[in-house]
């Protein structure tokens, strides 16, 4: 994840990276936080998955 973040910030003109993991995906959220992402906002019923809508976190990391 850090390699991808570094690539996007150094090789493109990206100023912010935004991802939206499901709230219930604790492992992914923790790994994103370790990579530098921070929780920004919950999107209720954002993603249709296995027959139901699920909440997602908006997580962001800004170029330093």
From TrEMBL:
Residue span(s) of domain N-acetyltransferase: 1-64
One Pfam assignment: Acetyltransf_8
Source species, domain of life: Eukaryota
Organism: Geodia barretti
Record-given protein name: Bifunctional AAC/APH
Record-linked SUPFAM superfamilies: Acyl-CoA N-acyltransferases (Nat)
One GO MF term: acyltransferase activity, transferring groups other than amino-acyl groups
